[in-house]
Design brief:
heterodimer, A: alpha+beta, five-stranded antiparallel beta sheet, 4 helices, globular, disordered C terminus, B: alpha/beta, 17 helices, about 40% helix, binds iron/sulfur cluster
Chain lengths: ~100, ~375
C-alpha cells in the first residue's frame, strides 16, 4: 500500500461526477482518480498512490522507476493477489485458508 | 552484502558514494523517515556501502507498523459484525491485534475484502445498499487525500452505508517528537518524498531551524537515497541546517494544492497514538465534525476499546531509532514474519521484517534458511 507507482494515462472520462482515468503501470491497467491532477492528459505520466494520481512525472524518470520496480518484483507485490501474498508470508496454514 | 553493480546505474552510484566518502570527516547519524526508504536501504545494502561514519537510523515511517494495537482491535471488532463488509489494503491483513488478525476474522466468517483503492470500497457500498461497508483508513499524508476524497464523494453522492475507520498520521509532528526525545541521536533527516509530493515542503523549515537539523526531501529508489545522504552529509559537514529538495522530479514546494484543500475540508488535526511510541500531540487526523456520520468508530460505538501493547516487543525503540531490530531478544527467535510479535515484523516496510528478510547473516544459522525462503516468497 505504501508504494506509489508511476503510470501512463491511456484514457480519461467523467464518471459519477468524478474525473477518472485508465492508467497503465508497465502492463497492469487500473482505474485511477484524477481529481487531484485534473489537467493530466492522455499520454502523460503521474505518480499514483492507492488509485489516485498525486503528482506529474516526466516520461524518462517514470520509465526508469517502472523498470526498476519490474526487475525487483515490486509491481507484482503491489498489484498481485493480496490474500495470496499475505498467506505466503504467513505460512502454509494461511495458504490453505486462502484456497478455501 | 549487496554490491554496487546491482544498482540501476552503478557508475552514478559509485560517484555518489565517492563524493560522500570524500566529504565525511566524522560520524553522523541520519534518520530516513519513510518505510519505503528503509526497505530500499536494507534490500540494497545501502547502509553497508556507506562509509562507517554515516549511520542510518530507521524511522517510524511505516504506516502499518505505527497503527496502534487499539485501532487494530477496533477494526477486528467491527469486521466481525455480521452486517459489515470490512475493506482494507492487503498490508493490514496480518497485523496482529490482541490474539488475532483480519485473516482470522475472515476464516471465522467475517466479510473482509481487500481493495486496491478506497474508491473500490465506496463502489462496494453502492452495490450493497443493505450492508455496512467500512474502509480501514490508515497511513500518512499520501493515503489521507485518497481517503478524504472517498468520504467527500460518499457524502456528495448520498451513499450512507459507508464509513471510515480513521488512523491517519502526519510526519512533521513525529520528527518533532523524535528530536525532543532525550535519547535522540538523529542529526539529519531524509524526509519522505511522496509525503512531500502531497504536502509540499512548507512544514519543514521551522523544524530545521528549531532543532538545527538538515532535512533533505528524498525519493526511495537506491540512487535517490544515496543522493539524499550525500546532500545531508554535505550540509552537516558545513554546519548547515536547511531544507533541501533532492527529489524535485516528484516534489514541488507547494505540494498538491487540490489534495491539501481536500484534507483541510474532510479532516481536522488531532492527537494520535503511534504503536510502540505512544500519543504524539497533533500527529494525525480525524474526520472533521461535519463528516462525523462517516466515522466508523462513532457508528459502531467502539470508542471504549482500549488495549495495552505487549511488553516483550521493543518496536517502540526500533521505531525511534534507539534499537536496531537484531538487538531485540525476540528477533528471529520467537518473532519472525510468520509469527510476528509486533507490527514492525509484519510489514516488509517495517524495520524488523526488512532486517529479517534481507540481513540473513545476522540470524541464527537455523533460521537463515527459513528467512531465505520467505524473502523469495514475500517479494
Ligand atoms: S523483533 Fe519482533 S518483538 Fe522485537 S521489536 Fe521487532 S517486532 Fe518487536
Amino acid at each position: 500500500m505504501c508504494l506509489a507507482v508511476p503510470g501512463r494515462v491511456l484514457g480519461v472520462e467523467e464518471r459519477d461526477g468524478t474525473r477518472m482515468a485508465t492508467v497503465d503501470f508497465g502492463g497492469v491497467v487500473k482505474e485511477v482518480c484524477l481529481e487531484y491532477l485534473p489537467d493530466l492528459e492522455v499520454g502523460e505520466y503521474a505518480i499514483v498512490h492507492v488509485g489516485f494520481a498525486l503528482q506529474r512525472l516526466d516520461e524518462e524518470s517514470a520509465r526508469r522507476t517502472l523498470e526498476l520496480f519490474e526487475n525487483l518484483g515490486m509491481l507484482q507485490e503491489e498489484f498481485g493477489d493480496p490474500w495470496e501474498q499475505a498467506a505466503r508470508a504467513g505460512g502454509e496454514d494461511l495458504a490453505r485458508e486462502v484456497r478455501r | 552484502m549487496k554490491y554496487i553493480d546491482e544498482f540501476q546505474d552503478p557508475a552514478l552510484a559509485a560517484r555518489l558514494l565517492d563524493d560522500i566518502r570524500a566529504s565525511v570527516t566524522r560520524p553522523w547519524a541520519l534518520m530516513e523517515v519513510c518505510g519505503g526508504q528503509t526497505h530500499s536501504i536494507i534490500r540494497h545494502g545501502i547502509d553497508q556501502l556507506l562509509p562507517d561514519e554515516v549511520e542510518l537510523i530507521h524511522g517510524p515511517g511505516c504506516p502499518v507498523c505505527v497503527t496502534p494495537l487499539e485501532v487494530i482491535d477496533k477494526a477486528l471488532a467491527i469486521a466481525s459484525r455480521p452486517e459489515v463488509v470490512f475493506c482494507s489494503f492487503g498490508d493490514m491483513l496480518r497485523v496482529p491485534g490482541t490474539g488475532r488478525d483480519l485473516f482470522q476474522v475472515r476464516s471465522e466468517g467475517g466479510d473482509v475484502r481487500v481493495v486496491y483503492s478506497p474508491l473500490d470500497a465506496l463502489r462496494i457500498a453502492e452495490e450493497n445498499p443493505d450492508r455496512e461497508v467500512v474502509f480501514f483508513g490508515i497511513g500518512f499524508e499520501t493515503t489521507a487525500p485518497p481517503n478524504a476524497m472517498t468520504v467527500h464523494q460518499a457524502r456528495r453522492r448520498g451513499i450512507r452505508n459507508f464509513s471510515l475507520l480513521v488512523s491517519h498520521v502526519r510526519v512533521p509532528p513525529a520528527i518533532e517528537a523524535i528530536m525532543q526525545s532525550p535519547d535522540c541521536r538523529v542529526q539529519g533527516f531524509l524526509a519522505a518524498g511522496h509525503v512531500c509530493s502531497v504536502m509540499g515542503t512548507h512544514e519543514y523549515p521551522a523544524l530545521a531551524e528549531r532543532f538545527r537539523v538538515p532535512i533533505v526531501v528524498t525519493g526511495f529508489e537506491p540512487l535517490d537515497i544515496l543522493e539524499g545522504v550525500r546532500r545531508t552529509v554535505r550540509q552537516l559537514e558545513r554546519g548547515e541546517h536547511r531544507v533541501d529538495n533532492a527529489y524535485p522530479r516528484a516534489v514541488r514546494d507547494e505540494g498538491n494544492p487540490a489534495a491539501r484543500a481536500m484534507l483541510d475540508d474532510v479532516f481536522e488535526v488531532a492527537d494520535r497514538a503511534w504503536r510502540g511510541i505512544g500519543v504524539i500531540p497533533d500527529s494525525g487526523w480525524r474526520l472533521a465534525a461535519r463528516y462525523r456520520d462517516y466515522d466508523a468508530e462513532h457508528r459502531f460505538q467502539v470508542g471504549d476499546i482500549a488495549t495495552l501493547e505487549p511488553a516483550e516487543c521493543r518496536s517502540g525503540e526500533v521505531l525511534q531509532g534507539l534499537l536496531k531490530p537484531h538487538e531485540c531478544e525476540a528477533f528471529g527467535t520467537t518473532c519472525t514474519p510468520r509469527t510476528p510479535l509486533g507490527a514492525t515484523m509484519v510489514s516488509s516496510e517495517g524495520a524488523c521484517a526488512a532486517y529479517y528478510l534481507y540481513r540473513r547473516l545476522d540470524l541464527p544459522a537455523a533460521n537463515a534458511a527459513a528467512a531465505d525462503r520467505e524473502a523469495s516468497s514475500v517479494v
